[in-house]
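testing teh design pipeline on a random one, pls ignore if ur not involved
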C-alpha cells in the first residue's frame, strides 16, 4: 500500500555513488547536503530486522532544483505512523499524524534525523467526528526537542481551533471562532510576537491569540496596491482569494494573497493559481489598526506556500532555491517570481487539485 504524502521537505541526503541516479540518495543525520524536496509517496518494502516497531520504506522525491524524481531507499519508519495514522500537518520540522482509530495525535521528526522521535499527544475529543472533518493546518509554537513549553495548534475546517500544551495539561482545549469567514483560514504562530495569528478572509482583519489564548481583532489595511488595467482587476475579482501570513527569521512578517481561477474544460472543473501579491506588514499597531504595504521585493527570502504552516527561508543558505520567489503547491505546482510576476510550472506529477501541503524540515528550524 502506498503512503502518499504530497509534501515539500528539507531533507539531508548524501550521495552513495554515481552508477544509479535513482538509488544514490539515502537519509543522513548530518547536514552535508541540504535542498528542498517534494515527497511524492512512500512504500513499505520490509520489516526492520533490529526494531520490531519499525518498517523499512522507500520514498520517491521530486528534486526541485532539477525537476527530477529520485528515490530514498531503506529508510526506517515507525509502523504506528504508517499503518494506523494519517498526516494532518507539519510545522518547524515536525510532522503531525492523527490515529485513524482513536484520534490520538503524534508528532515526529521522522523525515529529518536517522534517530527520529515520536511524541504521543492526547486524543482529540469526539475523535469520530473530528476524524471525518478536514484539517486546514497545524502549527507548533517551537520545536518539541528545543522547548518543553511548546504548544500545538490544530485548525479544522470551520470554526474549531484546538490547542494542547503537552507538558502542562494532558488534554486538548477547543476554541470556537465566530463567523463563516474563518472556515478556510490557516493558523501560524509568531515566535517574535509570541502570538497565534489568522488572516481573516479578504484580509480585512488579523485575529491573534496571546499566550493566555485571549483573542484580539486588528483592522488590516492593505496599501500601495499594484497599478494594473481595470480589466485585470475585474478578472482578479472573479478569482477565489486566500491570504496567508509568514514570518522570516529576522522578524519581518508578510501577507501573501493567492488568486485562484476556475476553468470548465469539457464539463471538468479545475482550478489554477493565477497570481500572487505580497504585502510587508508594519511592526506596530496604531489605534487598533495595522498596515501592510504591497511589495515586489522580499530580498533573499523565498516563501513556501501550501495547506500547512507557511514558511520562508533565506535562499542563499539553501543552494538551488530562487530568491524573491514563492514555491507553491496546490492549484498548480511551481515557483512564482515576485519581481516579474512570471510563473514557472513544474511538471504535474499529481492531480493539480489534490489536497497538498508543504512540509518545512530544516537543519535550523528557526531559519
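output:
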Amino acid at each position: 500500500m502506498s503512503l502518499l504524502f504530497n509534501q515539500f521537505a528539507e531533507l539531508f541526503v548524501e550521495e552513495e555513488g554515481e552508477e544509479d541516479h535513482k538509488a544514490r540518495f539515502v537519509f543522513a543525520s548530518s547536514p552535508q547536503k541540504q535542498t528542498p524536496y517534494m515527497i511524492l509517496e512512500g512504500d513499505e518494502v520490509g520489516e526492520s530486522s533490529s526494531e520490531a516497531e519499525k518498517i523499512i520504506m522507500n520514498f520517491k522525491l521530486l528534486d526541485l532544483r532539477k525537476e527530477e524524481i529520485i528515490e530514498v531507499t531503506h529508510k526506517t519508519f515507525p509502523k504506528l505512523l504508517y499503518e494506523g495514522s494519517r498526516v494532518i500537518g507539519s510545522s518547524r520540522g515536525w510532522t503531525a499524524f492523527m490515529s485513524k482509530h482513536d484520534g490520538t495525535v503524534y508528532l515526529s521528526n521522522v523525515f529529518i534525523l536517522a534517530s527520529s522521535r515520536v511524541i504521543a499527544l492526547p486524543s482529540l475529543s469526539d475523535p469520530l467526528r473530528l476524524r471525518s472533518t478536514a484539517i486546514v493546518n497545524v502549527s507548533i509554537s517551537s520545536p518539541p526537542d528545543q522547548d518543553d513549553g511548546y504548544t500545538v495548534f490544530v485548525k479544522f475546517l470551520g470554526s474549531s481551533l484546538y490547542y494542547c500544551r503537552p507538558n502542562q495539561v494532558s488534554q486538548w482545549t477547543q476554541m470556537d471562532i465566530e463567523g463563516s469567514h474563518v472556515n478556510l483560514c490557516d493558523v501560524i504562530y509568531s515566535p517574535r510576537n509570541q502570538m497565534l495569528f489568522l488572516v481573516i478572509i479578504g484580509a480585512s482583519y488579523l485575529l491573534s491569540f496571546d499566550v493566555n489564548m485571549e483573542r484580539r481583532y486588528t483592522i488590516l489595511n492593505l496599501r500601495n496596491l499594484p497599478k494594473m488595467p481595470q480589466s485585470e482587476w475585474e478578472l482578479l475579482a472573479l478569482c477565489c482569494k486566500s491570504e496567508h501570513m509568514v514570518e522570516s527569521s529576522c522578524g519581518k512578517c508578510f501577507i501573501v494573497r493567492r488568486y485562484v481561477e476556475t476553468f470548465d474544460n469539457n464539463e471538468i472543473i479545475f482550478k489554477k493559481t493565477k497570481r500572487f501579491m505580497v504585502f510587508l506588514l508594519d511592526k506596530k499597531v496604531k489605534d487598533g489598526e495595522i498596515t501592510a504595504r504591497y511589495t515586489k521585493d522580499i530580498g533573499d527570502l523565498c516563501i513556501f506556500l501550501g495547506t500547512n504552516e507557511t514558511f520562508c527561508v533565506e535562499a542563499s543558505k539553501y543552494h538551488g532555491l530562487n530568491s524573491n520567489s514563492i514555491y507553491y503547491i496546490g492549484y498548480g505546482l511551481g515557483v512564482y517570481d515576485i519581481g516579474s510576476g512570471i510563473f514557472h510550472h513544474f511538471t504535474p506529477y499529481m492531480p493539480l487539485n489534490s489536497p497538498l501541503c508543504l512540509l518545512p524540515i530544516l537543519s535550523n528550524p528557526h531559519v
